[in-house]
Amino acid sequence: MSEAFDCAKCGESLYGRKYIQTDGGPHCVPCYDNTFANTCAECQQLIGHDSRELFYEDRHFHEGCFRCCRCQRSLADEPFTCQDSELLCNDCYCSAFSSQCSACGETVMPGSRKLEYGGQTWHEHCFLCSGCEQPLGSHSFVPDKGGHYCVPCYENKFAPRCARCSKTLTQGGVTYRDQPWHRECLLCTGCQTPLAGQQFTSRDDDPYCVDCYGELFAPKCSSCKRPITGGT
Description:
By secondary structure, the chain is α+β, with helices and mostly antiparallel strands. It has helices at about 30-35, 90-95, 150-155, 210-215, and strands at about 20, 25-30, 55, 60, 80-85, 85-90, 115, 120-125, 140-145, 145-150, 175, 180, 200-205, 205-210. Strand 3 and strand 4 (about 60) form a beta hairpin.
């Protein structure tokens, strides 16, 4: 008499039937699936022994159930992202949650280098100076009238220029006859003394310190020959 060969779960004979061997003994297929198979997180059905099973963050899926919750694309062999427990393919994730580049209109992909300013986002290579059109990257820039300028371009385009040397004034400066001057450029026409911060006067639009103006243009006392100025 042959030895009994029965399912360890239901006790039915396994002769001539498909079975699966476990540490607890042989099991018929229905008993094996009911005892050991995981439940699919998507369809809530058992994942049978002959099904390809996918596992992600303590959740089990049939291969066909592991898909993007928006476009239903299979994620079995695709990169994906989990957002609020929902599985999303990269295209759907980028469309829903990524920023659009303000210059080219394309999606700024997660993990790519980007720049943000004033509530807008750019690819790093799309954030260009409005003057020379070179990437600004991490360099200093100046926003003006909807554009963004590197410092040299901004100074060349917008910064005031000294009435004497015509170079840009990047800081400081003085005003003479409604024109900007470098402090070091506003000099007495006679002795070349800097006039910024001291009293001076002008003749024929040329500035003079008080001493030079008196010596050159003020009337002289007929007795002492010294210049007669307003303070004399």
